[in-house]
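User: Okay, second chain of the day. Same drill as before: sequence in, structure tokens out.
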Amino acid sequence: MQFSNGFFIQFIRLAGPFWHSENKSAIRSLALALFMLTVMQIGIAVVITVWSADLFNALEQRSMSGLFTQIGLIVLIFAANIAVTTAHFKVKRRLQLDWRSWLTHHLISKWMTDGRHYLVTHIQGTHDNPDGRIAEDIRIATESAIELSHSLIYCSLVLISFTKILWTLSGTVTLNLWFIEIPIHGHLVWLAIIYAACASALGWWLGRPYTLATDARQTVEANFRFGLVTARENSLAIALVHGEANEQSRFVILFKDIVHAWQRQTLAWSHLFMLTSGYSVLSMAFPILVSAPRYILGSIPLGALMQSAQAFQQMAGALSWPVDNMARVAEWRASVERVLGLSNGLERLEQEIALHDPHRIHLKKTEQAVLRFSDLCIIRLDGVVCVHSINAEIKPGERVLITGNAFTGSKLFKAIVGLWPWGEGVIELPQDPVFFMPPRPYLPTGTLKAAICYPSTHGEYTDSALAEALKLVDLEELQEQLDHIDNWAGALSREQQQRLGVVRLLLQQPKWILLQESMDSLDSSCEMKMLRLIAQKLPDAAILTITNEPMAEGFHQRRIVL
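Assistant: Same drill. Structure tokens below.
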């Protein structure tokens, strides 16, 4: 596993603003408290090694008074350790939650703004499955960052504290090489360094495949979840065409990818597991075996032997941080890279939108009550021109039929509302907002009243206004369900949903309306009835319509052919 400077720079850019945010005083206080509690944990660990030496010395001397003294001390150490550990746990969890909350809100605000969530899907980059990146990868990235930082600081402090203890306990041993005697000071320190270095080098070598395996698994897990969510959201459409067998086959393929990624990760993890499990056993026995000859020869008491073993374990454990955290670091990096993929994609999108590129459609507000296209050209993402040289002007109260290519017409509507910048020319927009009614309106889960009024709050419209609008579009039967909670996108038929789209339009009373095949599930007479209803209730509104209904041509005053 390798880290490039670019990765750390990007991570600092992503995480750094949290430490300088509005709550920086509270955040830094929590971080300082976490550090001080970590120092106290180290202090307790040092005290325990001293207590252990005194205990074994008392046992070796068969001193009853010394034993009772150590019993009293361990009670105090026990209480102090519980208090410090509990406080440390609470502070760490609070800091993890605060960081996750900030980064989640920060990324959501960039993603769910001005259609960025839609536009970002059309640019290149590794930013697929944004739901998984925001919900899961941010959690891992923030929680693991604090866990790893704490453990690294803890190990560094352990190394500083116990190196001095182990050096003192090691004394000096003489290495006899035939005619030369070499005195070695602090031999246990050097053995701990060599021991941990060998294990770390082996761990890095065995753990290199784990990062790629972890990243691959997280990607295929996200793809599988996304496939299930998509099927749930389109369950009615799947049922109507009996597409269950196709969906099952697709799920099987997606899950096979998970199986392969799991097996790959298991293989990489097993190599690490063999190393760490053997390493943990050897760490318990090795320091005692190394120091045992000095105890047997009478050079050190039993207490010093046990204290040396504990200090060796602490120091070797601190030096083995890379081995012990190989899997966690790999998982953390994979999640950070996925969060960075989405964040970088959104930043790149913002930069593209901010540039006054001549090969982008430019939207500008005008004081005039007019919607004007000037030398408008719309292109596809692959560079193919859909339509060019559109010059038209639409005034309030006009009804304009968009004919020709419906695919190009949808791109035109998206360009008007700022969701298709690919092309050239200028679109001048009136000050009043434009109401875009797609083939199926978005009906969020909740009460029917809130779903109809979306994105406005249902408090803006009275029940009588809702009832009147429902009656006008022949949905009186839904009046009793206004306060019911359901997944309305699945509970209602497509025709009912499109009629509710008209209800939403009548309630909001926009002055500029884009209808993109928004009543194609209705029969000819019903669609014409809805169009006449809109014109009657909103006589001053400009209406641009894309429809396959032949009778609609007589309703509109003119048409634009794409």
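The longest strand covers residues 385-394.

User: Thanks, on to the next one.
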